[in-house]
Amino acid sequence: MQPEFATVTSKGQLVIPAKLRRKFGIRKGTRISIREDNLKLVLQPITDRYIESLRGSLKGGPSLTAFLKKERRREFQIEERKIKEFRTRR
Q: Among candidates 5, 30, 29, 1, which has minimal Cα distance to 16?
């Protein structure tokens, strides 16, 4: 790919060439992550396509959903015990 060039304005703004905006799905309001990587600036548009590409990258750890279900079950059991104790005291 041929390099594209842009000039930074006095306000620190940078115009991303239209060809690259189309290619990467960058539209008005698209958030862009900017990070430093070995003396380079890396711009990453935060688009649906990018978010979709992250799917499954954090697999392997315990499921948060399973943890929450287990925790809710435990809380429910505690409440059930409290209700039974209250009823037996009456």
A: 5
